[in-house]
Each structure stands twice: as structure tokens, then as C-alpha cells.
Amino acid sequence: MEEAKKQQILHRAKEVFQEKGYVSASMQEIAESCGMAKGSIYKIFPSKEDLFTEVFVACHQTMFDHAREMDRKNHAEHLSPKECLRQNIEFQLQYMLENFFFMFEFTELPIKENEKFIAAWKKKRATLLTLHRDCILETYGSPVEVFVWDVVAIYRGILREYLYYTVRKVIALPMSELAQFIVERIDAVVNDLLASEAKPILQSTNTYFQHLNPLDPLHQQQNVSGFLDALAAKIQNLSMPAPARDELLEVISLLQKELAQDSPNRTLIHVFMTYLETIPQLRPDVRQLALLM
Questions:
Q1: What integer pLDDT is reported at residue 109 of this predicted model?
Q2: By CB atoms within 10 Å of each CB, which of 8, 87, 129, 152 scores lowest?
Q3: Quick one: how far is CA 225 from the chain centroid?
Q4: 170-203: per-residue pLDDT in tens?
Q5: Interval 3-25 mean pLDDT
Q6: In this structure, is residue 210 part of a structural domain?
Q7: How many domains does the chain have?
Q8: Backbone torsion region of residue 35, taken as left when φ is above 0, otherwise alpha when ψ lies between -120 and 50, otherwise beta
Q9: Which segment of 101-110, 139-148, 156-165 scores lowest on mean pLDDT?
């Protein structure tokens, strides 16, 4: 009985949140929609934040469960990898369209400060990223593994943008046709990456970070170090006298050593970066470096 009541509350709360929005929806309205006293809601969900988080989790869990069940069914029917991908995309687009309020990133809502919600959001994001990675690998096999996270990033960007246009009623296209269009675009991306032997940009170590899951200091330091290595390679190809290039490379080396310290000297770092910025070809890179730091 208690579980049935909980599921009823989650179902009604989902409808109220979708209709009113997080801020405007009240526990009183949700209770009235359920036909029960507000106190009965609070016995199960201590706060609106807790209730919203549970709805958020349930909404995504339903999507994950349906996606896995569809995969099992498709494999049992021996569908081609491309058709499995198309059906997977069609399902995701349709489900996200129907549950759009719970699918976007919540950057503007107060709920993003709630610890329980942040934990649920991180878990959702990790699960969805893994689902998308597995989907790409199952479709294209081991050749795509080296740059699978770049394909996933492009794939997710395409899904997000076309879903946004669909929600805003800018485009009106059956999800089956849109899914086929996206499969063809991903095909083109994968074929180009394979043909050009492109160097991957994303790795598993930096894929799972986002605004609610910021980069930890170790990975941030690794990113800065990698960027400085790339900057040193660029300097070696600059058209200037060798002594001038050597001096710039020495500044890069000193900057790397200083940044590796437990407590870097910020004044010294500023001096090094100001010097690098005197070279017009390096100014955009120095500004990017400042953002990375």
C-alpha cells in the first residue's frame, strides 16, 4: 500500500512540475492532485526538493529500463546494428520530447544547489553517457573505440539541438524520420574520423565532467599541462629567429614548472603569460590558457 501511494505521488507530482515548473509548483497543489492531505506527502517526501529529485530519478530510470529492454528485443530479433541505433534514437527523441522538463540541465533552477539532486544528476549523466557510448560501440565496433567519446559528444549535441527545435515547434517531423537523419549524420562523422585517422579530443577521464560535476584539480592540472605542450609545439613552428623561439619555449618551461608547484606564485605566472601575450600569434592561446587556469 505504501509503495502504491508513493508511485501515485510521483506520477501526480511529475504532472504538476511539468505544468507549473519547479518554482511555481507547491506541495499543496501536488497533495490536492493526489487527493490526499499535504502531511501525507511529507511523511514520504520530507521536502519539495526530495520529491522533485525522486521524480527526476524515476523519469530517467524508466527511460533507461525501456532502452535496455528494447536492446534485448532487437538483439533477439537479429536486427542490424544501424537499425538498432535508429530505433534507439527514435525512442530517446520521443521519450525526451514527452518528458522534456526533466531532461534539460537545470542550470537556472534552485534545485541545482540541492546535494541529493546533484548526486542524482551526476548518476543520471554517467549512466546516459555510458548508454550512448555502448550504443556507438555496438553499432560501429572496435575501429571507433579510439575516438568513441568524440562521437558520443557529437551524437549528444545533435540529439539535444534537434530535440530543442522540436520542442519549440520550429520543425515538425516524425521522430522515425529524424532518427534516420541523425543515423546518417553519425555515419558521416564516423567515416570521416576513420578515413582521416583523426586524433581524439575527449577521453573517459574528461567526459564525465559538467557544470554540476566540475573538473577536479588533478585533471585540471593535466589539461593545463597538455595545453602548454601544444602551445610549445605551435611556438616551434612560428616564423621567427631561432633565439626568439628558444626564449618563448623557455618561458613555457618555466610556466609549467611554476604551475606544478603546490602553491604557484601567481605574480610570476602573470609575468610569464604577459610576456607570451606580446606575440600576436599567441594571444588567443594565452587567453584560452587563462580560462583553463
A1: 65
A2: 8
A3: 23
A4: 888 899 999 999 999 999 999 999 999 989 998 8
A5: 90
A6: no
A7: 3
A8: left
A9: 101-110
Distance from C-alpha of 253 to C-alpha of 258, rounded to nearest angstrom:
9
Closest CA to 128 of 101, 106, 160: 160
Long-range contacts of 57-61 (CB under 8 A, 24+ apart): 57/120, 57/124, 58/10, 58/14, 59/14, 59/99, 59/102, 60/102, 60/124, 60/127, 60/128
Return all residues near 112 (Cβ < 8 A) that are at least 6 apart: 106, 118, 121, 212
Q: Which domain holds residue 164?
A: 52-196
Q: What is the pLDDT of residues 253-280, one digit of tens each?
A: 998 888 888 888 888 888 888 989 898 8
Are residues 4 and 117 both part of a single domain? no
The answer to whether the CB of 107 falls within 8 A of the CB of 60 is: no
| Rounded Cα–Cα distance for residues 122 and 63 (Å) | 16
Q: How many residues does the chain have?
A: 293
Q: Identify the CATH number of the domain in which residue 79 sits.
A: 1.10.357
How far apart CA 107 and CA 126 sit, in angstroms, is 18
Residue 219, pLDDT score: 62
pLDDT tens digits for range 227-243:
888 888 899 988 889 98
Q: Which residues contact 110 (CB under 8 A, 6 or more apart)?
A: 22, 23
pLDDT over 70, % of the chain: 93
Cα 85 from chain centroid (whole Å): 19
Inter-residue contact 155 to 136 (CB < 8 Å): yes
Place of cell 575516438: 147
What is the rounded CA–CA span in Å between residue 17 and residue 57?
Answer: 14
Query: What percent of the residues of the chain are helix, what percent strand, and what percent coil, each to the nearest 5?
Result: 80, 0, 20
The rounded mean pLDDT for the chain is 88
